[in-house]
Amino acid sequence: MLAADNSARGLVANQNFRYSPLSRRSPECCMKWVYLYIAISGEVVATSALRASDGFTKLGPSGLVVAGYAIAFYFLSLTLTTIPIGVAYAVWSGAGIVLTSIIGWRLFGQSLDLPALIGIALILAGVAVINLLSGASAH
């Protein structure tokens, strides 16, 4: 690919001769967020299966735990070439906490009291602030 083609697409070469996106709308940048969503999904599935594995005594859910965490960490690692580690981890863990809490409530009948709901709301607010207002989110 020619350098002129890359500048027209909004890409520039960095020191490692890899192309990094300059705009929020570039496919490379968007894929990193897709990878992060896949990582979050893998972590939520694995954590939910962890409860169902009954201390790793049930083979199916135990395999799902291992596969889910492998997917989660693999795709999380792919995001770190573009998204700063602090931002990626904050979004990954925050979304994982919220989604796992909802699954625990809906599937496993676990209750969430008012302080838990307030904490979850604060986590969501923090993730929103990082993504909407922070320049560190590398959109």
Quaternary structure state of the chains depicted: single chain
SSE order, one letter for each helix or strand? HEEHHHH
Share of residues in strands: under 5%
- Low-pLDDT parts are 1-23
Structural class label: mainly alpha
| Structure annotation, total helices | 5
Instruction: Give the strand order, joined by hyphens, for the main sheet.
Output: 1-2
What characteristic shape results from the CA principal axes? flat
Largest sheet: 2 strands, antiparallel
Question: How much is the radius of gyration in Å?
Answer: 18 Å
Number of domains: 1
From the N-terminal CA to the C-terminal CA, the straight-line distance is: 24 Å
Give a count of the beta strands, DSSP E runs of length 2 or more.
Answer: 2
Helix content: 55-70%
Rounded mean pLDDT is: 81
